[in-house]
Each structure stands twice: as structure tokens, then as C-alpha cells.
Amino acid sequence: MSSSERINEVFYAHNLTGARLELVKQICIDFEKELSYLNEQLAIHRLDPVGWSLVYRFLSQDNFYAEVGKCAYVPKNYEIRISLGVPATVLSVAIELISLQVDSESSHLGKQYDGSSCSVESLFPGVTSASEIGGAATNLALDVCLLLYFHEVAHMVFGHCDYRPRNSKEVRALEFDADFNAGSIFGSWVMGLPSAIRRPSSSSELVERLIRAAFVLGVIFKAVSRESENYHYPSVRVASFMSGGVFSMTKNGHAPEFSDDGEGDKYWEQIVRDVQAPLLDALRRSSLSRFSGTEIEIQRDWDELDSVTYKVRNELKDGPLATLRVTP
After folding, report:
1. What is the C-alpha separation between 187 and 250, in angstroms, rounded?
2. Which H, E and C letters describe 90-105, residue by residue?
3. Which partner for 293 in 148, 194, 297, 314 could form a disulfide, CB atoms 3.0-4.6 Å apart?
4. The predicted structure's pLDDT at residue 228
5. Nearest Cα to Cα of residue 80 among 157, 163, 13
6. What single string gives the DSSP state of each residue in 232-276?
7. What pLDDT is stored for residue 76 in this prediction?
């Protein structure tokens, strides 16, 4: 998928050489390995028994693009199209945000952008050695890529591909539903990744990885979408992913159970705040700061999520989507 020659052809405008070329090549290889394994597991355990299929295809594009849709007009056959720009862009954003956190070992990389470009558009121009990039950035980038894959899987499995939203409220509701279910899949499947060093060592690590991945994916969605107004702010969107993650982890015995829902909500909200805080602070000082939202914008976004998005999502889930989803 990602020889040096192909990477150079796809990313010719980025002038990738040396360490930057090697980093892009390696993140593409690592993502494809995990994607191949997980897509096979999805087929075995969910799709094959009901006669559905899902394939993936990497596109030779340097932008951030991922979309699931019907494949060759055959009923129940779908394809996820993912650009090679996805893992490269995700790694670029992860490097910047981690470099801007307090006491970061790569703090010198927090000054790569001068205001005329950002980490979505320019791939870590200040990196001169692969050793400058610690495992934290690579692992975060891979988690974000997997969460994006799960998000697209959720669009397919839960009937979104076969439903045409009538307005922006329904678009947001479908995104919320995909986020919730992507979080649920993440909470169930990441524990079983083929590489032992990529598996969470504890349920608390799994939770923290989901929160960080959800936040970074929310940032990128907000930054690259032509319909950015249809997306909730990153700090709000984390709640959608986490709701699904908590649901599956509780079901699988990997999360504490609470007799009082209010107590449980407070417990998880505090964890989200604690884990998300360094990333939100970094985002506000980054080249992507305009996508963090002001306190007023974020509160308005929460109100929209609570009063509109939840309601519309439930109406769709119990209505037209009920007959379109994959059923066991």
C-alpha cells in the first residue's frame, strides 16, 4: 500500500524526505495492518452471518477523506474509501498537540507553524529525525485512525448509508449516532488488537485512549469538513464517543457500575475533563485553535446536543433506521 515511491507520488506537494517520509510511510503501514485485521473480524462476527460485506480501499490522495458507501450497486455490499492523507494528517495533528502539552519532550515542535499554515495542511515541517516523535504521538494517531474506521463502520451497520437526511439537524443526529456506536466498538475491540503493545493494559488506559482519540478526531472533523457547522465542537463530541464506550465497557465488565445514574454521570464527566484538559489547552495554543470554540459557543453546542440532537437521533433510530440496520 505504501512504498516510498507511492508516498512521494501522493504527497509530492509536501516535499517529504528523510524522517518525514519515513514517518508517513510507517503510519500508513501500521494503520493498514490493524484495519485489515479488524475488517476481517467484523466480517466473521457480524457481516458474513447476515450476508453483508464491507471492503476498504486506500485512495492516492493527500487530503483527509474517509467515506463509506454502497459498493458496485450490489445490495448489502459496502466499501470504505480512505485517503492516504488520513493517517498522515492524523499523525501531524497528534504531533502538534502533544508537543504543546506542558513538559512535553517534543516541545520544540510546537512552533512549527507561523500562522500561514496549520497541522492539517502542512505535515510536521519541523521534524528532522524520527526519534523526535515519541510513541505517544504514533499511538494516539493510530487510535484516531481506528476510531474513524469504527465511525464509518457505524454509518453502514446502523443504516445511515441508506437514509437521506432531510436537514442539518438530522445530519448532526446521524453523526452523533455514528460517534456513539464508534465509541462502543472501540471499547470492545481495541482490547483485542493483534499487536500486544497496542492493547490497553487496563480498562482505565482504554478509557483514556478513547477520550484522547475522540478529541483529536473531533478537531480534525471540525477543521476539514465543508459542512463544519454540522459538527459539534471537539470537547462536546467526546461525550458522544464516550457514551458508547462506557456502554460497551460496562456491558463487558470493564467499567464500574452505579446504582444511581447521576453518580455515574459525575464519575465519567470528571474523568473526561481530566483527560481532555491538556489536549484542549494545547488546541487553544495550536495552529488549529479556531476550532476549539469559545466558552459561549461550547455551552450553546451542549444545549443543542441535549435539546435537539439526542431527540432527533432517537426518532431516527426508532423510526426509519430501524429497518435499515444490520440485524443478527
Report:
1. 9
2. HHHHHHHHHHCCCCCC
3. 297
4. 58
5. 157
6. --HHHHHHHHHHHHHHHHHHTT-S---SSHHHHHHHHHHHHHHHH
7. 87
For the chain, what is the radius of gyration of the CA atoms? 19
Question: Which three cell numbers, joined as nine digits, stand for 327?
Answer: 440485524
- DSSP code at position 326: -
Q: Cα–Cα distance between 39 and 23 in angstroms, integer? A: 24
CA-to-CA dists, residue 216 to 103, 136, 143, 149, angstroms: 20, 13, 10, 14
Dist. CA 98–CA 87, nearest whole Å: 16
- How many other C-beta atoms can be found within 10 angstroms of the C-beta atom of residue 76? 15
Q: Which amino acid would we find at residue 131?
A: S
- Determine if residue 37 is left, alpha or beta; phi over 0 gives left, psi from -120 to 50 gives alpha, anything else beta: alpha
Contact 287, 89 (CB under 8 A): no
The 10 Å CB-count burial string (b at 16+, else e) for 110-126 is bebbeeeebbbbbbbbb
- Measured over the CA atoms of residue 294, residue 295, residue 299 and residue 300, the dihedral's sign is negative
Regions of the chain with pLDDT less than 70 = 1-2, 73, 227-230, 328
* Gap between the Cα atoms of 42 and 113, Å rounded: 40
Question: Helices (DSSP H) in the chain: which residue ranges?
Answer: 4-10, 18-42, 85-99, 135-157, 168-189, 203-224, 234-251, 261-284, 295-304, 310-318
Cell of residue 300, nine digits:
450553546
The packing angle between helices 261-284 and 234-251, to 10°, is 140
CB atoms within 10 A of CB 250: 15
pLDDT tens-place string over residues 50-93: 999 999 999 999 999 999 998 876 778 999 999 999 999 999 99
Angle at the Cα of 279 (from 273 to 281), degrees rounded to 5? 90
Residue 208: HSE in the Cβ half-sphere, 13 Å Cα cutoff: 14
| Contact call for residues 38 and 121 (beta carbons, < 8 A) | no
